[in-house]
Automatic annotation (TrEMBL):
Protein name per its UniProtKB record: GmrSD restriction endonucleases N-terminal domain-containing protein
Domain GmrSD restriction endonucleases N-terminal: 11-243
A UniProt-annotated Pfam family: GmrSD_N
InterPro entries: GmrSD_N (IPR004919)
């Protein structure tokens, strides 16, 4: 312990005071501490006015530890900060800031960069050349260009501003509580010169004692106890400290890393100034941005790991992916090893710096420039209730596309960015991304293309276009064709511009293509508008196809008119392979598949070039045999109006064609077609089984599909009315068995069955059922006689 009391001015001349990050925020400036400030500042002013009974105001001990000329106060931080602000304010008002600034710069914050930068800027005389005292000092400071808006979230800076300027909070009597330096020291320049002389003299009226803890060899436990009032660091603060430490260590090994530690423009400074400003507008109600800042960096660095380090989904870097792409709960609790394995080259930090530099210059949210049809997401995460916004796998690909543009462009250009992101969104949306491998493949595709972010159309359209990635070949081929048409249009009629198209906007092939991409459920994939029946790109019929596509697939599109358009489409099938893989319903997703898959390019081309979309009443299939029956029943019967969504055509033994959705378990979701049993039973159908007044010679079943001559189920259970009601089941293997109490009688008597393949018509069916019933009666009578 020093034997003599020391003034702050002498103390800051001997030491570089560095407030450690573990210390709590500057508490004396908090809201709710108005009376504390009033009392403490009042005592300081009394001492300066030499109104105290003793010669000097003696403050409590300051405890700290020293290391290479730096002093870290472990107790007394609050008093030191207030004394520093007092000296700064008096120097400013006395016109002494120029001479005082060098020594005042010896007070700083360790890794709380925003607080450090704020203090540094207060010590730059040029920043206050325009200050004349006619406006409040806090208003002046916060209106300066060097004051970052993000600093409004730093509790220490806000507390400092309150200590400087005070608050407008009143006491119980309604009078303003004098709780700021500006409010208390309402004096002229001469008085401030007097105060400054007193503060810097050998006999300063405000002193304290300093205790160097290391001189007493205190234990670690005591250090911890003395710091018990400090706050726990957030995950992001711990990450930042290790991040900066990592850069410092790399700089010792490689000079190329040294540039990132520049005092004014290095990453430690940017983390708490320029980069923080990017996230400030998305802060939570408490002014906190750490979680969203941390999430953004995690997403960015995971992409780096995938692209540059080729990290597999089993490697440690994939921890940054979170759980099924939900990274909202990630914490920094496993050290910096994950990040050091990613940030192996200085170029990665260069890219990250470029990204933030370009992003700061973008006036709007970057997602505002994405195609209108693309589902918007938060490029900069946002707080939503108790969590933060996350990204889907598709959005992660688009996130990467935005990052690559900002890293690579020479300067942000709206037109070029829109073009680049149109291609990125089209590629990301129009491919199946439901695994991490698929996502990684699309990221690598975007990375390859990103070498041309500023001229993507020209690159796609060039003869030199060559790419290693095999991801999304169909959509990439479409993007190449559209780029060529935009830059060097084939001779073709340009579609009419929309009626609501602004006269200020040019209508050309790029705008026509973009309009089509954003229409209905097309979402960037429109190759069906310029692909002919031979799977070749052809723009001659684009205008006609686009006009028909709007009629067919708009909000009230013709495709919603039951299955009319679907049946018309199927009527154009000329190859048996076309029936396989199609989903026989009229949902948007099914039509999207039909339009895009080159298997159906011929019927799609014919359909979109047509002037009518109704099936010809005299329609006949060009196929033969069972295939002819399949197509005609699908086209003419109306069955598709009634069946379950998601049905596909399947083939089974005994020449059976059946419609049902994938993995369907329920029998009522299965429909056998091109089978004579549907027509025969429909002719004899009298109603449901529970109908009370059944007619002789009719069949009754609950499996009839009302509205068409079809039945659901592999097997059809029905009641036939003769002298009594008899239960039959037409099995899917084409035998008709007689049942009694749900028991198949064929097991006891193989004569009680009918070969369905031998039935000629409904009359023949009735006769054979009557004969089967007679055989049943006879066998029943014989059994009774034996008994």
């Amino acid at each position: 312990m020093t034997n003599e009391a020391t003034s702050f001015w002498k103390f800051i001349g001997n030491y570089q005071i560095e407030i450690p990050i573990i210390q709590r925020d500057y508490a004396q400036g908090r809201l709710g501490k108005e009376y504390l400030r009033n009392n403490f500042l009042g005592n300081l002013k009394q001492a300066l006015d030499y109104q105290l009974p003793e010669s000097a105001l003696k403050l409590d001990f300051v405890y700290g530890s020293e290391d290479e000329g730096k002093l870290s106060p472990l107790d007394g931080q609050q008093r030191l900060t207030t004394l520093w602000l007092l000296h700064w304010y008096v120097a400013l008002r006395a016109g002494k800031l120029e001479e005082a600034s060098v020594r005042l710069r010896n007070f700083t914050y360790e890794t709380r960069i925003s607080s450090r930068e704020f203090c540094r800027n207060l010590c730059i005389p040029q920043n206050f050349e325009e200050y004349d005292g006619n406006i409040g000092i806090v208003d002046f400071i916060t209106s300066r260009t060097w004051f970052y808006s993000s600093w409004k979230q730093d509790p220490t800076i806000q507390s400092m501003l309150r200590m400087i300027g005070g608050t407008k909070i009143n006491n119980k009597q309604g009078n303003d509580i004098i709780d700021g330096l500006e409010e208390l020291f309402d004096a002229n320049k001469e008085s401030f010169e007097h105060y400054w002389k007193a503060l810097t003299s050998e006999n300063a009226p405000i002193v304290f004692y300093y205790l160097n803890l290391k001189d007493f060899k205190l234990t670690d436990d005591l250090y911890i106890k003395m710091n018990a009032r400090g706050k726990q660091l957030t995950s992001f603060e711990n990450f930042k400290a290790d991040f900066i430490g990592y850069i410092e260590e790399k700089a010792k090994e490689d000079d190329a890393w040294g540039r990132f530690l520049n005092t004014e423009k290095g990453i430690p400074t940017k983390l708490d100034t320029e980069w923080t400003d990017v996230f400030w507008k998305n802060r939570d109600s408490n002014g906190e941005i750490d979680r969203i800042f941390f999430a953004f960096l995690n997403r960015y660095l995971l992409n780096c790991a995938i692209i540059y380090n080729e990290a597999k989904d089993t490697s440690k870097e994939w921890k940054l992916y979170g759980t099924e792409s939900d990274d909202s709960s990630l914490r920094y609790d496993n050290g910096f090893s994950i990040y050091s394995s990613i940030l192996s080259k200085p170029e990665f930090l260069e890219n990250l710096s470029s990204l933030f530099e370009r992003l700061a210059g973008v006036k709007e949210d970057v997602c505002a420039y994405l195609p209108k049809w693309f589902k918007k997401f938060d490029f900069i995460p946002k707080y939503t209730e108790n969590t933060i916004s996350t990204l889907t796998q598709t959005q992660r690909v688009v996130f990467f596309g935005i990052c690559r543009y900002l890293e690579s462009c020479t300067a942000f250009n709206e037109r070029r960015f829109r073009r680049w992101m149109r291609v990125v969104c089209n590629l990301a949306e129009n491919t199946t991304i439901n695994t991490v491998d698929a996502m990684a493949a699309r990221l690598k595709l975007i990375d390859e293309l990103s070498k041309h972010v500023e001229n993507i159309y020209e690159y796609l359209a060039s003869e030199d276009f060559k790419i290693q990635s095999k991801a999304s070949p169909e959509q990439l081929g479409e993007e190449i064709a559209k780029a060529k048409q935009i830059l060097k249009p084939q001779k073709a009629q340009l579609p009419e511009r929309p009626t609501d198209w602004s006269d200020d906007k040019e209508w050309n092939w790029e705008s026509a293509i973009s309009e089509a991409e954003g229409y209905a459920f097309f979402n960037g994939a429109i190759r069906f508008l310029f692909r002919n029946k031979n799977n070749k790109w052809e723009w001659n019929n684009f205008a006609t196809k686009w006009r028909n596509a709007q009629f067919l697939f708009g909000e009230k599109g013709f495709y919603k008119n039951k299955s009319t358009l679907l049946r018309y489409f199927i009527s154009k099938f000329t190859e048996w392979d076309m029936f396989w893989g199609i989903t026989f319903d009229s949902t948007q997703s099914s039509w999207r598949s039909n339009l895009l898959d080159d298997k159906w390019s011929c019927p799609i081309d014919e359909m979109l070039c047509s002037s009518s979309f109704e099936v010809n009443p005299d329609y006949h299939s060009s196929f033969e045999g069972k295939q002819k029956a399949v197509q005609e029943e699908l086209v003419i019967s109306g069955l598709l109006d009634y069946i379950e969504r998601g049905c596909h055509l399947n083939y089974r033994d005994n020449d059976i064609y059946i419609l049902y959705p994938y993995n369907a378990k329920a029998d009522w979701k299965k429909y056998i077609i091109a089978d004579k049993r549907n027509k025969l039973l429909s002719t004899l159908y009298g109603g449901c089984i529970d109908l009370s007044n059944k007619q002789l010679g009719k069949i009754y079943t609950n499996q009839k599909i009302e509205g068409c001559d079809f039945f659901w189920g592999w097997d059809i259970h029905f009641i036939y009315v003769d002298d009594a009601e008899y239960a039959f089941r037409w099995q899917h293997w084409n035998w008709i068995d007689l049942y009694e109490d749900n028991k198949r009688l064929y097991e006891e008597n193989n004569n009680l069955t009918i070969n369905g393949s031998e039935i000629k018509d409904e009359k023949d069916l009735v006769e054979k059922m009557d004969q089967c019933i007679d055989r049943y009666r006879n066998s029943k009578g014989n059994a009774d006689q034996l008994n």
